[in-house]
Design brief:
The chain has one domain. It is 84% helix and 0% strand. It contains nine helices and no strands. Helix 6 packs across helix 7.
């Protein structure tokens, strides 16, 4: 399973490196969102800093949608989905590989967006370890859920419009928990719920969707 996961992840990442979709489409969308909010809320510096965590994860969400759509599209053209089914690869490994490739792209986007937040919003993170832990667990959840729903909608003609409708309600708890934990990391403000509990909620979400994807991804490929 892990060997197959490495093969699939390497294949997806090589395709992205050659096509540069993440560089030319995904990353610019996230940066533009941050820039627009910076100009829109610049009238109050304190407001911009308080909203930095939420705006960061909104930008990550948009980047995630684009990355997941791209990942699903790779298997939807020229019989690639049928070839993947007939390849003999472990379906669980295929899921982990595609989710891993999406996660790597999201981590790269998050690093750039975090630098953009620090520069544009004049935010100095007070808890880097907490912020890194939040981003790591949230990224696993986003990639796992996105890959699973991408396979679910991949065989449909309307997947470009259906996938966001399926994903947004599912990812809402992740964004809320990640935003709350990131607020504590960026501003050191006291929250009603401890940051560790928000990270625990993110961990539960990630484990559930990764486990479900490992079990069900083969069925989704066959049904597609």
């Amino acid at each position: 399973m892990w060997r197959d996961a490495a093969l699939v992840a390497g294949k997806d990442l090589r395709i992205e490196a050659r096509s540069r979709v993440a560089t030319n489409q995904v990353l610019p969308v996230g940066v533009i969102v941050l820039v627009l909010f910076a100009f829109a809320l610049d009238v109050e510096g304190d407001l911009l800093q308080r909203a930095a965590a939420g705006l960061f994860w909104v930008a990550v969400l948009l980047a995630c949608l684009l990355a997941v759509q791209r990942s699903a599209t790779l298997e939807a053209s020229e019989g690639a989905r049928d070839a993947l089914r007939l390849s003999g690869l472990d379906p669980a490994g295929v899921f982990l590989g595609k989710a891993g490739a999406v996660a790597v792209q999201l981590v790269a986007v998050e690093v750039v967006l975090a630098l953009g937040v620090a520069v544009l919003y004049r935010v100095e993170p007070a808890g880097l370890a907490l912020l890194a832990a939040t981003a790591a667990v949230a990224t696993v959840g986003l990639a796992g859920a996105g890959t699973l729903y991408g396979a679910l909608a991949g065989s449909l003609r309307t997947r470009e419009t259906l996938l966001p409708l399926l994903l947004l309600p599912v990812l809402a708890p992740v964004l809320i928990a990640a935003t709350r934990a990131s607020e504590a990391a960026l501003t050191q403000t006291s929250l009603d719920v401890a940051p560790a509990q928000w990270i625990g909620l993110l961990g539960v979400f990630a484990v559930v969707y990764v486990a479900f994807g490992v079990v069900a991804f083969g069925t989704l490929l066959e049904d597609g």
